[in-house]
Amino acid sequence: MDLIHRPRRLRTTAGIRNLVRETKLNKEDFIYPLFVIGGEGIKEEIPSMPGNYHCSLDQLMIEVEEIVKLGIGGILLFGIPDHKDEIGSSAWSEDGIVQQACRKIKEEYPELLLITDVCLCQYTSHGHCGTLEDGCLLNDPTLENLAKVALSHAKAGADMVAPSDMMDGRVIAIREKLDQACYDDVAIMSYSAKYASAFYGPFRDAAHSAPKQGDRKSYQMDPANSDEALREMKLDLDESADIIMVKPALAYLDIIRRAKDNFITPIAAYNVSGEYAMIKAAAEKDWVNEKAIVLEMLTSIKRAGAEIIITYWAKDAAKWINDY
């Protein structure tokens, strides 16, 4: 009698399925993005990102307290400034909103992993990620300003800085600036493969960072390219990036997998605002089961190779994973 192979034996009960599960989500995998603004007593929901808020510093600390209690891996902090100019100078101000938030968070929760986004788009009057001249973004003059932003965050208490601008050479510019100032322990998580994606719309609403003219295709990556992502990642690692990131996540799972297969380094993936908003909208219409689809999606990102997942569902997922 020929034996019948029965893989279903390992699917018969929840206990067996959990025992042999190859990919498991952990709350420590998640990084939760937060948006801090000036003022007091402000907690305004972002219309295109239900459940996410612009928070003044006092309200931000309430969010941070919940994150700490949930045991989430850390936070990624974005600032919404009161002042914008041509070069984004408020981004590196000692009294900038991110710098204030970093000091307060580290004062109350010194063990929380605090990551800050390093970019200029929400600080510049034109909405681009660096210095413009005659409508063209100037790469090298932007590097010094990005390095100043990173150093100001490190001085305020950031454990890790995350340059998201996609300028050539920004990782080494930041690394040298931090090391010269004796912040050699501050890590760099580089947005190494950041694509010129249509999935960023809600975030640009949240960060008030949409470009006033043109687009970012001259510095963010072409969604059609895969080999280019590997070149970008290698360059960042050669420049001393500690973690490399792929953004967005869902449409770029193949890029995450290629990163994992090619580099022995931690891989992060950003589950971005458009991915979040689409599922939220479908769930609100009862077209999908939000909890089930989110956990399936986050598992796919981890299965592709990301050890670190930046997601607006971090708080919910931390509560849900015990039931998955």
From TrEMBL:
InterPro entries the record matches:
ALAD (IPR001731), Aldolase_TIM (IPR013785)
Name of one Pfam family that matches: ALAD
Biological process terms from the Gene Ontology for this record are:
protoporphyrinogen IX biosynthetic process
The catalytic residues are K194, K247
> Which residues does Mg(2+) bind?
E232
Explain the purpose of this protein: Catalyzes an early step in the biosynthesis of tetrapyrroles. Binds two molecules of 5-aminolevulinate per subunit, each at a distinct site, and catalyzes their condensation to form porphobilinogen.
Q: What is this protein called?
A: Delta-aminolevulinic acid dehydratase
